[in-house]
Amino acid sequence: MPLELSGAIALKELDITNSGFTGVTIADGAPLEKFYVEAPSSLVLTNLKYINDFRINSYNNLSTLYLNNIDESPAINSKELVDNSPNLSFYCLRNVDWQIDDSTELNISDKTINILERLETLRGKDTFGNILPMAESLAG
């Protein structure tokens, strides 16, 4: 069951562990400082720069990830989110700051693979759920 909080623009803390929510959309630019989630299947995080405490108990269900301009947040590492999500199928990464090259690798399900090769195997999605080509899913 998804939790739609795009209108909660003053949200500062969210703990939905043990809640049954499987997808979360946080309001663009919310002053969120603490965010705890059990095992999300989807995350939409945009312009969140105040999160100093971020915890996902299990990445195994995460299949859809939309990140836009979240690297200013001290607790969210966008590369680790991708690295720790073995079942990721759809993604959109915008304005992320990764230092990668052709040799940058991820460890997924005890396999080491090149990060660019992994992203090429996934499909892109925008915030409206539209499927995007991989090139449009990576920006910034």
Describe this structure in words.
This protein has about 140 residues and is mostly beta strands. The protein has one domain (about 1-140). The chain contains 3 helices and 13 strands; from the N terminus they run βββββββαβββαββαβ. Strands 1, 3, 5, 7, 8, 11, 12 and 13 form an 8-stranded mixed β-sheet that branches. Helix 1 (about 80-85) links the parallel strand 7 (about 65-70) and strand 8 (about 90-95). The radius of gyration is 14 Å and the shape is globular. The mean pLDDT is about 85.
The 3D shape can be described as globular
Question: Could you give a short account of the major beta sheet?
Answer: 8 strands, mixed
C-alpha Rg, in Å? 14 Å
**SSE succession:** EEEEEEEHEEEHEEHE
Mean pLDDT: 83
How many domain units?
1
Q: Which runs of at least 5 residues are low in confidence (pLDDT < 50)?
A: none
Number of helices: 3
- Classify the helix fraction into a percent range: 10-25%
What separation lies between the terminal Cα atoms?
A: 31 Å
Number of strands: 13
Please indicate the percent range of residues in DSSP E strands (runs of 2 or more). Answer: 35-45%
Structural class of the helices, strands and pairings? mainly beta
Please outline the helices and strands.
Blueprint: E1 2-5, E2 13-16, E3 23-26, E4 34-37, E5 42-46, E6 53-56, E7 64-68, H1 78-83, E8 90-94, E9 105-108, E10 111-114, H2 115-121, E11 123-125, E12 131-132, H3 134-137, E13 138-139
